[in-house]
Amino acid sequence: MLSAASASLSPDHWFSTDEQFNFLYPGPIRLLAAKHWTPLHITQRVVRYLTPTDNARVLDIGSGVGKFCLAAAWSMPSAFFTGVEQRKGLVSHAYTAQAILKLKNVEFIHGNFTRLDFDQYDHFYFYNSFYENLVDTEKIDDNIAYSPELYDYYNRYLYKRLDERPAGTRLVTYHSLESEIPPSYHLVEAQVNDLLKFWIKS
Ligand SMILES: C[S@@+](CC[C@H](N)C(=O)[O-])C[C@H]1O[C@@H](n2cnc3c(N)ncnc32)[C@H](O)[C@@H]1O
User: Fold this and answer.
1) Is 110 helix (H, G, I), strand (E, B) or coil?
2) Is the distance from CB of 47 to CB of 80 less than 8 angstroms?
3) Which of 70, 87, 143, 176 has most Cβ atoms within 10 angstroms of its Cβ?
C-alpha cells in the first residue's frame, strides 16, 4: 500500500520515468512490468495517432493494470480511454492507480473483451494480449485457463470485430503476430524494429 506522502505526489512525478510509474503498484506487479505493461515512451509515440479528433474513444484490448490507458489519459485529456481486462485483481490495481493520479478521462471494465460492444469505441490499442495462450510463453499467473484454441478463438473474434469497423478506424499493435488484423487495415507506419505498428481501415 502507498504511503499518504506518495499518494499526495503530483501526476507529473509518477510519469517522469517507468520506474516511478511502476511504484504505483505493489512489488509483484512491478516485477511483471518489463514483459507485460506498455513502456511510457511507447504510449507517447501512439497516443496522438489514436486520438485524431477531440473526444475520441479509445479501447485497450487487455488492459492489465492500466498502464497504457493511464499514461494515454494523462497525455491526452480531450480523449477518453477504456481498458478491458479479464483478471479482476489487475483491474483493481488499475483503479487504485487512477485514484492516485486523479484522472477522469479513463475507465476500466472487468471482463472478457468478447463481451464488449465495439460500437462504443473509435480506435483501438492491442499489446499482443492473447499470446499467453501459446505454450512456453511467460504468463502473468496460473489463475486462468490457457490454450491454443483460445488463442485462435480470440484472434478470430477480434479480426471480425475490427473488420466491421468503419473506414478511418485506427489501430496500433505492439508485439503483434498480426493474425488478428484484417486485410482491410493497411499499415501506415512501423517503428521500434517493426514491433510497433500503426494501421488504418480503408
Ligand atoms: C500484455 S498485457 C498488456 C496490458 C496493457 N495493455 C498495457 O499495455 O499496459 C495483456 C493483458 O491482456 C489481458 N487479456 C488477455 N486475454 C484477454 C481477454 N480475452 N479479455 C480481456 N483481457 C484479456 C491479460 O490478462 C493481460 O493483462
Assistant:
1) strand
2) no
3) 70
Predicted confidence (pLDDT) at residue 166 exceeds the cutoff of 90 = yes
User: pLDDT tens, 99-147?
Assistant: 999 999 999 999 999 999 999 999 999 999 999 999 777 889 988 889 9
- What phi and psi, each to the nearest 5 degrees, are found at residue 124? -135, 145
Output the ligand 1 site: residues, CB below 6 A.
36-38, 60, 62-64, 67-68, 84-87, 90, 112-113, 127-130, 140, 154
Neighbours of 105 (CB within 10 A): 15
Ligand 1 centroid – CA 60 distance (Å): 8
Query: Which structural domains are found in the chain, ordered by start?
Result: 4-201 (3.40.50.150)
